[in-house]
Amino acid sequence: LVENKISRASSTMAGVGNSINSRDRKKLDPPPPPKKTKIETDSEDEAEIEARPRGSFLYKGKLLQPALSCRDLECDTQRDLFYKQLADSEGFDVEWDRFNYVFNVVNFDWNPFIDDKRSNAEMMDMLIQAAVEEHDEENGTKLESVEYVSANIVSVKGFLFFITFRATDVLSSDQEPKLYQAKVSQYCRQEVNVLMVRRKPPQ
């Protein structure tokens, strides 16, 4: 009887040992390589890239990396050019196709997340409408046939939008559409404030 108990105990301990060894082996085995994510581009070929790092954007088939993670000469050169263009245009005009990195200003056309209640298109319509109403009130105009052109976004206790749009003043004898620029802030995704709106100055 004692021998049977010892035999059953030995079998039980062996089973536990096998179970532990199995779990330990799983922990020691190297993890499988990360799966690659296929992302469609504008070309016929598909670009196969690793999962996009946080803060990166895919735009026109090009993966734009966060500049904070880059420490090389090309990144520094592009950073200098980027901030020069931004300063020269007062925040409105950047030749985005010339850059491979994401700095602290985001292109609206990258489709970033802005609001959980409105689509980006709805948000931009609201911001431009606020700018049009402000311009009409300040200048006695009546801007119509409004069309979005471009926008740059800075995150500062909410969002600051540098918007360029095209519109026609129906009260003017000149019915040729003109470019306008507006700087509009949105605090905590609620309050919208038009800080500035004007005809785009000549280059």
Description:
With 203 residues, the protein is of the alpha+beta class. Among the domains are: 53-103, no CATH class; 120-199, Roll (Nuclear Transport Factor 2, Chain: A), CATH 3.10.450.10. It contains three helices and ten strands, in the order αββββαββαββββ. It has helices at 2-28, 73-88, 120-139; strands spanning 37-39, 47-49, 57-59, 62-66, 101-102, 106-107, 143-155, 159-169, 178-187, 191-199. The strands form three sheets. The chain has a five-stranded antiparallel β-sheet, with helices on one face. A three-stranded mixed β-sheet has the order 3-4-5. It starts with a helix and ends with a strand. The model is unreliable at 1-31 and 33-50 (pLDDT under 50).
Lateral strand order in the biggest sheet: 6-7-8-9-10
Q: What is the CATH top level name of the domain at 120-199?
A: Alpha Beta
Global morphology: globular
Helix content bin:
25-40%
Content of β-strand? 25-35%
Rg over CA atoms: 29 Å
Segments where pLDDT lies below 50 for 5+ residues? 1-31, 33-50
Structural class: alpha+beta
Number of helices: 3
Mean pLDDT: 80
Largest sheet: 5 strands, antiparallel
Q: What would you say the CATH architecture of the domain at 120-199 is?
A: Roll
CATH topology of the domain at 120-199: Nuclear Transport Factor 2, Chain: A
Spell out the helices and strands N to C. Answer: HEEEEHEEHEEEE
Task: For the record, give the distance between the C-alpha atoms at the N and C termini, rounded to a whole number.
Answer: 101 Å
The number of distinct β-strands equals: 10
